[in-house]
User: Which sequence fits this backbone?
């Protein structure tokens, strides 16, 4: 097995956010000692965060067409998409749904309504 090192390369993902892609390249000891630390040994890398473990995926065009054929109206399709989005947000730990009373009171105060 060839010895390797890893470079964290910044990329722009489909959500418009910059993430770090791990690129494995053959090991060159001179580059490992380079100031700035662009290249690292795999064992020295930080553990992957939750976002890196599971990618956010939108429904495929095939699935959207199938849902549209199953639904009787655009409103029904919208509800199905909203349920899917909310399930996805809940899995990621983001609370969805209606705002609670304190959020609405704060919003009214900021908007100057009594």
Assistant:
């Amino acid at each position: 097995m060839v010895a390797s090192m890893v470079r964290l390369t910044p990329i722009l993902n489909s959500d418009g956010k910059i993430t770090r892609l791990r690129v494995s390249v053959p090991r060159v000891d001179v580059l490992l000692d380079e100031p700035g630390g662009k290249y690292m040994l795999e064992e020295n890398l930080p553990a992957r965060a939750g976002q890196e473990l599971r990618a956010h995926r939108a429904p495929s065009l095939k699935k959207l067409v199938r849902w549209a054929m199953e639904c009787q109206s655009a409103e029904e399709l919208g509800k199905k998409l909203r349920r899917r989005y909310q399930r996805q947000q809940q899995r990621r730990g983001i609370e969805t749904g209606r705002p609670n009373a304190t959020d609405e009171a704060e919003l009214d105060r900021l908007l100057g309504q009594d």
User: Anything to note?
Assistant: The longest strand covers residues 4-12.
